[in-house]
Predict the 3D structure of the following.
Amino acid sequence: MTDRTMTVPPASPEQQAVLRDLFEETVAQAPVAISITDSQANILYVNQNFAEVTGYAPEECIGRNESMLSDQRTPKAVYQALWQTIQARQTWQGTLVNRHKSGRRYLAHVSISPILDAQGHTSHYIGMHRDVTDVYTLEQQVKNQKVLIESVVDLMPMATVLIDEQDKVVLDNQMYKTLISDLGQQEPSQLFLPVLREALGEEWPRLQSKGHGFQEALVIPLRGGFRNREVRIDRGGYLAPRWYACSGSWFSHSDGQVDNFFQGARHTYLLLTLNDITQQKRQEEAQRINAMRALLAEEEKCQSVREALLGAIHHIEAPLNLLTAAKNLAVRRDPEQQNSAFVELLQQILDAGAASVAHLKACIPPSCGASATSVNINQLIHETIVLLTERLLASGVVVDWRPTPVLPSLMGAEQRLRSVFKHLIENAVEAMNHSGIRRRELRIVTWSDNELVHIAIEDSGPGIADNLRVKVFEPFFSTRTDGGHGHTGMGLTMAQDVINQHQGLIRIDPTYRDGCRVLIQLPIHQEFNDRG
Ligand code: FAD
């Protein structure tokens, strides 16, 4: 093994003289105010920068005490701590208020160290200080600005939140905090962000990445963003839905980490504002519900005419089918025995019947609302409940409305879907009314996954027998034996038809035993197909 110990050859007297000169020159020209004092803080030496920082030339301060720099604004306790530290032969560092020769006050960041003699006693002190007034002023300005910005953000009349790239909340205001309790302690950003991402689609990452590339500025506001995207939050129970106009702007910010000093790593933040427009939306909704009421009344009239005509056609077609069978029987008989006049008569009756059926079919009013629009199922159900409020109250039905707070929209025939929900709720109310059951509860739940919106409508009525679960969807089938007015047994057939047009599924839950539970699934990404 080789000996790695470094041996430094002793410096010659010439080298020592050069080194001393170098050291003196370094201290004299150091860019920090340096002073050397005796043990009582009387100044013995100052360098060039000392004169620049304090305003005193060496001849003006040598022989005087360092206290000549004191502005008397520094608390006595600070000096006591300073002296206690240096007298204990330790270095003291801190900030003092100094007075410049001109009378101007400045903040000095001071470091004082004792110089010990051969016996270990303090013979001198060496002081170094810098004027840190500008840094301090800047720090205070930044702090004040931060407080100012936070106060302004706090006073903003809309919920405002700053979100980082990991969807974590970095800053929020008072209104946003109120929103947390309004939405049942749920982090509002977690509700809004997925909906906004879905609504903006490919625009989201494009807007988010805008503005990268500028490295100098600390904060870069990005162009773009989005304005007034409406999001509906359903809170369920008796709580009305709330509406928010959401606006967002992205900006990029340098994180100020030492590691990224040269790389200039930046982070993108989203400033999201959520403006509560519920009041305005409620007024619009009230107007819409009134218009809808009139439309539904009209549609109901058309529906009963449609059902009456379909019923009549059904009743005419049944004997016609028998007559067709009778005619076929007569024709198949031996030609000698065939009564051609009778067959002829049967044919005439069949032709007349077919003409009547064709005439009745032509009279069936077309079903309305075939055009597909973007539909929010929560909204449709909520509106339907509002429409039926009087009826529900009159029947003593307690409605337990449990929507998932945010449901994706789907393309569908709004009016037809609303008729389906109205019919299913009316069915449930009727079932509970007629069964004489005291507990009358209607629970409507919505939820969604990536593909489907799910709806469950449960009532506490008598339920539907296992053998009838499929039959109830057949035309003209009714479990009502009292021949109730207006019951043609076409409602569920029509409901199934509408759900099929939306490529969805409707069924009675066989596992539900506390009444009847109708389950509906509607695909989110399927196109509405009007076969009606
Ligand atoms: P004083 O009444 O003189 O002292 C205030 C308190 O300081 C006293 O109550 C006492 O507890 C303590 N004290 C003062 N002198 C001594 C002493 N000799 N021994 C023990 N305790 C003592 N001060 C500044 O304001 N600005 C500077 O830039 C600065 N630089 C200094 C650099 C060096 C190298 C040293 C050694 C001291 C420095 N001081 C500086 C401290 C300065 O010497 C004074 O203590 C301070 O300015 C307070 O002076 P005063 O006249 O306001 O109060």
Remarks:
- Residues 278-332 form the longest helix (55 residues).
- The chain has 14 helices and 18 strands.
- The longest strand covers residues 242-254.
- Residues 35, 37, 40-41, 65-67, 69-70, 72, 74, 76, 79-80, 83, 96, 98, 108, 110, 112, 125, 127, 129 surround flavin-adenine dinucleotide (CB under 6 Å).
